[in-house]
Fold this protein.
Amino acid sequence: MARVVLVTGVSRLVGGRTARDLSLSGAVDRVIAVDAVPPSHSLGQAQFVRADIRNPIIGKIIRQEQVDTVVHLGVITTPRQAGGRTSQKEINVIGTMQLLAACQKADTLQRLVVKSSSSVYGSSPRDPAMFTEDMPARKAPTVGFAKDSVEVETYVRGFARRRPDVAVTMLRMANVVGRGLRTPLTDYFSMRVVPVPFGYDGRVQVLHLDDAVRACVSGATSEASGIVNIAGGGFVTVKQAARLLRRPIVHVLPYTASLVAFVSAQGRIGTFDADQMSWLCYGRGMDTTRMRELLGFEPAFTTREAILDVFADPHRTPQHPPRATVAGPIGGGA
């Protein structure tokens, strides 16, 4: 059982809420919440330590606090969150490498949980109906967050080989949606007019923010290890999702992704990420048998329910808990 848990990426919603829920769960003794910037949301009883995982100081924190479980939720989905694509890649890949190097030297470490993404499977016309955890991508991602996720998983597998005594769990999550959460997909379904690739209607499988947090808590407190797909039940297509949300659609040619992004921004109809065009064409599906049988986890929201809960009432304002108390800066800054 986990006693001292370190959670990274707590300035963002999944990381912050995971740290909070773990600290209030009664299943662990202490939670140390780490990020380079202070969170704007409550961390419950977790202790916030301002530290950059790219800085070797993270190893000192793990040793001094005798951390036995690390939950790495510090991989950033969009360049906007990091201040640009270069910073995003540095935080995602270099940050993970530095954290794993610190974990490798930690004698007290017993469990490592890493939030990964279904984007590692890519999107292509040759994809199976559903990817199991053992299936490789038919077309490996070569750009952006998806490429970062592939590299992160490669380094995590290397760590698992070097430290066979540590239980390693990778949670491959479907696109996470939630109020207050900004990702390319949430931006897409928040557009006033939804661009749909002409002749295509990709499958959409998502995970509600509440379920993403519950899955991270389960990963930290269970004895499961290995790669686990995490997603809400069922699928909808892109066009079905637009109809559910009563959004008008406009058909666009798949090879005009960059132009669509430019026109969307200039016309102030919303933010469109050109990198997701392939996914909008072909979609992606994951088999979640292992999620239920190995992790013992069942999402509360299906894909359809999550989309309706998050996007059907755009005028509803999310409630933000009080700002977290900061326990002093250590190591690198923002």
The radius of gyration is 19 Å. Confidence is low (pLDDT under 50) at residues 316-334.
